[in-house]
Write a structure and sequence with these properties.
The complex is a heterodimer. Chain A is mainly alpha-helical. Chain A has helices spanning 4-13, 17-33, 40-49, 51-65, 73-90, 95-119, 124-143, 172-190, 192-202, 204-209, 214-239, 251-261, 273-292, 297-322, and strands at 148-149, 161-164, 168-171, 242-243. Chain A is built from 14 helices and 4 strands. Chain A is globular, with a radius of gyration of 20 Å. The model of chain A has no long low-confidence stretch (mean pLDDT 91). In chain B, strand 8 (227-230), helix 8 and strand 9 form a beta-alpha-beta unit. Classes of the chains: A mainly alpha, B alpha/beta. Chain B: This is Sugar ABC transporter. Chain B: Belongs to the bacterial solute-binding protein 2 family.
Amino acid sequence: MTTIKERSEFILRTPAVGPAIALVVAVVVFSVTTDTFLNVDNLSLVVQQSLVIGTLALGQTLVILTSGIDLANAAIAVFATLLTAKLTLESGMPGIAALLIGIVVAAGIGAVTGGIVTGFRLPPFIVTLGMLTIVTAVSRIYASGQSFPVDDDTLGFLGQKQYLFGQIEVTYGMVLMLVMYIGFWYALTRTAWGKHVYAVGNDPEAARLSGIHVRRSLLGVYVVAGVIYGIAAWQALGRVPNADPNAFQLGNLDSITAVVIGGTSLFGGRGSVIGTLVGALIVAVLRSGLTQAGIDNLYQDVATGVLVIAAVAVDRFSRGRQR
Amino acid sequence: MGRRGLAIIAAGLLAFVASGCTSQKTGSGGQPADGGRIKVGLVTKTDSNPYFVALRDSAKAEAGKAGAELIALAGKFDGDNEGQVAAIENLVQQGAKTIMITPSNSTGVLGAIKNARDRGVLVIALDTETDPKQAVDATFASDNTEAGRMQGTYVKAALGSKAPKVIMLDGTPGSTVSEQRHNGFLQGVGLKDGDAAIVGVEATNGEQNKAQTATENLLQRDATLTAVYTLNEPAARGAYVALQAKGIATQVVIGSIDGSCQGVKDVKEGKVVATVMQFPKKMAAQGVQAAVEFGKSGKKPSGFVNTGVTVITDKPVSGLRSQDTSWGLQNCWG
């Protein structure tokens, strides 16, 4: 038996090398096989296309690191878009205030989820499945069969484009996602909070014995994830300035896909947010590249599914070898 | 080593998929040397719904005739605005001169459409209008309100002296098409939302399974209905199965909209009394023709081009023009 400390040292040193290589290979393959993939415009678009799922996947990573799973994340984000849009449209609230309310409510839903998971010791899979059903229904009730086009500079801010060197299209959303990932990479690898998250995911009992407040840490993770989902709602409005109760029906699974391809273990306690960022980019690159290569959407889904299973198999295999 | 293993597997997979690319391609060869072929993009709501499959196949056939290349993409589910936006972006990247789209949401993809048009791409809405209509260059569609109204008019005439007592099976909450058909039906049958004659309204997402469940539940509430409004033919089939189980299918007038070959067969077999046929093949073909014309001469289509709807029934009623099911089977889609 290694000590918690040694084990966590090893885990924190595990970089997202595998997924990164896969991403580079994917980019190279599509650059060679199509003549429309490799250009500045398209690469910028690929990143823009990954923003919403990429942000949802960041929150999902935190939950999965604690050996949980969050099936409600996209539903929470969709509810936040509806709330934000309706507050600005119907109450004439300034965008920034509506946005903050959306984020606070998303965090509140996270707190409820986390409270139930830790308070009653229920499996996160079941709790978030219930939450997914509830939040989706509440969204539809709240939207009463409508969707809400928003036209507000603050709400659409993340979709605004700037040009670097006159030609590289960069949106504020891209910058924000990058900043968030770097921030969380730092928090997870360089702070006590991050070490606690890993420890709780690895072995809650050992974490408790080494003096970590397991429940408090867990609850905190769900609240932080909720905040991230609120920000994902902002990203979504930047991409599509329309709050639609039917949007992102598969966002929860898409975000899990990104996390898994990024090399984070569903058994908890192993993985990295940088891996998830790479995973989200791989999914977007695959979709874009295969589209440009003229492959049917459905074959793209087959490729993505195979990749997910392969990634988990690799994770399982490498775990087995260590024990 | 897990990491290296993952990298190798991922690389192998990607190589495999990418090599599949070149052999999987339909239409033109792998490397378009821009040999003057006009590229036409098509973005449908989904690629699983038979209606959109028919629309896509017709567009492919028409493009083949004209020597144009059709690139067909789709959202993942009805309401996948983000997926449709990504599809439009990808088509612009691939150099499509025209993009035809059946928008999932009448306002959800306006930004992406505007970006495409700013780059000189002709954008045509098929089947579903955008809001505002001027967001696209032209729209080739049926009037969904008109389709609903025809179903309502037929049901009213078929009921004759019987008072209407209706259940309404709608589509996806918030879908433009669903609302237009719903409101059209009410106009045609002469009722308003909230009237006592409406026993219940349920969202079925246009799925047979959900429609059957909804009808079963509504029948529990009140089994003395005289008519069923359905947004599409799968919903009509679901309603029929539920009514059949109660043994009252023959006493109830089930109306529908779509005009799929299966739907026309249902009318022929007497399961559904009448359906209102739309012509997705016509929409797609006219869209492709406009795209090819634009590619050749730069002439853009404009405005709303109504591709029409036709009532299909073997029990015609006075005051409403209709065609019988043999005509229907010749003109159906799917």
